């Protein structure tokens, strides 16, 4: 792609900082962190594997958000491409789907991948060798649209039971209203960043299947559609299938 197009593509939305750090999605089970209680709206599984030292965002603090919009997107794109090359060369795991999650935290609470890292560490997730993360997700999208890196794409995530080995986990911060009920709390910046990120994943990795965590629930009546009464969890609190179908 020529430079001009690339820059256009990378252009940032109105608000936003993009950022790189780490990800994870705790399949939280009533965890209290920083005054917020995350209820269990996930059903993920703990799976681990992989390796390496902290690459970006050393992790640890709350609100460690970097602001380098375009550079960060370019860096994220580069990482996805590198992974794609390794995958196609048979040197990395093969992925064929993206699972979308929410962090199951209350609307407006600006948690970061570092927070998720701490939560998942507390839950006993394994520290990954490449990324240095405990976070079960590969990407976490902050309220301001910043895209934070969690596990390295080469590392198997811990976010969706039975599908961790062949999926990429993307999580946005939020998913609960002030009372702790499931709600699509995505900010415009989050929506834009998620659409950008998922489009990149789909195109670079040649993925067509993108669905929400809840869509992995069993199809009890066998009609081929995972309906709301069949959801094990509400995560990610919006219908990801049509939203990302035509990216
Ligand atoms: Zn989830």
Short description:
This protein has 247 residues and is of the alpha/beta class. 25% of the residues lie in helices and 15% in strands. The protein has helices at 3-10, 69-88, 113-122, 188-205, 240-245, and strands at 31-33, 36-38, 51-52, 97-102, 105-106, 129-131, 139-141, 147-149, 167-172, 175-176, 209-212.
Key words describing this protein structure:
15% strand; two-stranded antiparallel ribbon; 5 helices; disordered N terminus; Lysozyme-like; 247 residues; alpha/beta; single chain; 25% helix; binds zinc ion
Structural commentary:
Helices cover about 25% and strands about 15% of the residues. The protein has a single domain, classed as Lysozyme-like, CATH 3.40.80.10. It has helices at about 5-10, 70-90, 115-120, 190-205, 240-245, and strands at about 30-35, 35-40, 50, 95-100, 105, 130, 140, 145-150, 165-170, 175, 210. Residues about 1-40 and about 45-70 have low confidence and may be disordered. The strands form four sheets. Strands 8-7-9-4-11 form a five-stranded mixed beta sheet. Helix 2 (about 70-90) runs parallel beside helix 4 (about 190-205). Strand 7 (about 140) and strand 8 (about 145-150) form a beta hairpin. With about 250 residues, the protein is of the alpha/beta class. The radius of gyration is 16 Å and the shape is globular. It starts with a helix and ends with a helix. The structure holds zinc ion.
């Amino acid at each position: 792609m020529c430079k001009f197009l690339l820059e256009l593509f990378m252009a940032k939305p109105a608000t936003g900082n993009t950022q790189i750090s780490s990800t994870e999605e705790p399949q939280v089970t009533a965890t209290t962190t920083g005054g917020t209680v995350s209820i269990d709206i996930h059903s993920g599984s703990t799976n681990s594997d992989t390796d390496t030292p902290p690459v970006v965002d050393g992790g640890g603090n709350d609100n460690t958000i970097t602001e380098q919009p375009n550079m960060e997107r370019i860096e994220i794109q580069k990482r996805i491409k590198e992974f794609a090359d390794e995958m196609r060369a048979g040197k990395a795991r093969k992925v064929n789907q993206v699972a979308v999650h929410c962090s199951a935290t209350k609307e407006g609470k600006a948690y970061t991948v570092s927070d998720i890292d701490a939560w998942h560490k507390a839950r006993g997730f394994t520290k990954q060798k490449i990324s240095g993360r405990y976070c079960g997700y590969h990407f976490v999208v902050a309220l301001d649209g910043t895209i934070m890196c969690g596990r390295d794409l080469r590392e198997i995530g811990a976010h969706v039971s039975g599908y961790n080995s062949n999926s990429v986990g993307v999580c946005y911060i939020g998913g609960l209203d002030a009372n702790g009920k499931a709600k699509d709390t995505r900010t415009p910046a989050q929506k834009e960043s998620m659409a950008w990120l998922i489009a990149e994943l789909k195109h670079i990795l040649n993925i067509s299947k993108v669905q929400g965590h809840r869509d992995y629930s069993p199809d009890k009546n066998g009609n081929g559609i995972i309906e709301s009464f069949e959801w094990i969890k509400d995560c990610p609190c919006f219908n990801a299938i049509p939203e990302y179908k035509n990216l």
